[in-house]
Amino acid sequence: MKILIKGGLALLFDGQTFKVEFKDILVEGNEISKIAEPGSISESELKDQDLKVINAEGKLVMPGLINAHTHAYMSLFRNYADDRDFWDWLAAVQKVEEDMTEEDCYWGTLLNAIEMIKTGTTCFVDMNIKTAKKGHTTGPLSSCSGAANDAGMRAVITRGLSGNANDEDSLVKFGRVIDEIETFRGNDRVRFWFGPHAPYSCMADYLQKLTNAAKEHGAGITIHLSESTGEVENMLKEHGVTPIKYVADLGVFDVPVIAAHCVQANMDDIKLMKEKGVSVAMNPKSNMKLGNGFMPAEEFLNAGVNLCLGTDGCGSNNTQNLFAEMNAAALIYKGDKQKAECISAEDVLKFATVNGAKAIGMEGKLGILKEGALADIILLNLDEPEFYPMNNLVSALVYSATGREVETVIIDGNLVMEENKLLTIDSKEVYAECEKIADRLNMRK
């Protein structure tokens, strides 16, 4: 199918800065084939019976947002175990997770996908707790990966792993991860990395095993690092180094890595991560909610580390709205540093688009509108009070937009939401199933 997006304001990136210009955009297959001056792409010239024309007058056309760190199944934990410190919260969540099934994770991930699509996220990096049943790529038995597939979303899927490399449970889980990768082979929209949970839960031999597996499969790793003061203090006491130095010494940074949180990173950690090309997924709302503090975002930015943006799961951030996360990221670090210039709106918009694409090895293909890029595109209604007067639309996206302005979403060249109507998910069915799960797991507390 071809899609012609006509007459909209397009958010373009020239490699340094964003600019907004009136453009027509032609999508052929799963790629953007042409970006041209308004009216220069003629419908009659296309002569295609399978042409979909979208009138984008009064709309902003921009790349879909990239959520660089979440736990999508944890939509089921929304408004559960709130107002607890990190370790108490983690214990409460893990107790419930022990009773969860692949089907639970499937419906929870679909619930997450509804919110992400409706607020303009087209790609997410996931760490989950259940792999798909062998051979299943769709439906409830396909767990989190199948939910992403069924929703039409783009995803980088990881199974959170902990323990030792050679204990029986770890061997079984690792085998299931490999099975899942093989089952989804050939699906370029749902890709797989490896997900050691954290250095305090995933032992050294397992960290090395997963790093070697990532090398073998041409994949990367995502891992929680230096999220809390307790984690750093324990690592210093037990090993004499920070969590970031610890995993670097084990060779984890020898593959592409997205390190989530890094709230308690010091300057030596930051220098090391820059040298190793590690991307850092900041999660400001989650870090605030769990009382873990504020990451040294300005220091990471000044060091040239690739910063990207994540929501974390709904257990520690009750929404999956990256517009809300951009707003938080642009504000809280200014307040923490008492310095308005430390991070700009443009910086934050990069975190959620081009930097996120770089983090997952898709630089130039995602997070950007350009010819040859993949067609992950969102359209926002500009006829809303928060956009007027239109002094600076880049600032408006970060400081004013709520995410509810998103009307139409295209992922991999396919419409997944049009004029606020979801096309790939039955939201009423998802809501009903999630209510049943919450009842069964005794989450009404």
Written overview of the protein:
- The protein is α/β, with parallel strands linked by helices and 445 residues long.
- It folds into two domains: 2-63 and 366-422, Urease, subunit C, domain 1 (Roll); 73-359, Metal-dependent hydrolases (TIM Barrel, Alpha-Beta Barrel), CATH 3.20.20.
- The chain has helices spanning 43-46, 86-97, 102-118, 143-151, 168-183, 204-217, 229-239, 243-249, 267-276, 284-289, 297-303, 322-337, 345-351, 354-359, 393-399, 427-440, and strands spanning 2-13, 18-28, 31-36, 51-55, 59-63, 65-70, 121-128, 154-161, 190-192, 195-196, 221-225, 257-261, 279-282, 306-309, 377-381, 406-411, 414-418, 421-422.
- Strands 1, 2, 3, 4, 5, 15, 16, 17 and 18 form a nine-stranded mixed beta sheet that branches. Strands 6, 7, 8, 9 and 10 form a five-stranded parallel beta sheet that branches.
- The mean pLDDT is 96.
* Name given to the CATH homologous superfamily of the largest domain: Metal-dependent hydrolases
Shape: globular
Structural class: alpha/beta
> Approximately what portion of the residues adopt beta-strand conformation?
15-25%
Counted by DSSP, the helix tally is 16
Count of DSSP E strands?
Answer: 18
Q: According to CATH, what is the class of the largest domain? A: Alpha Beta
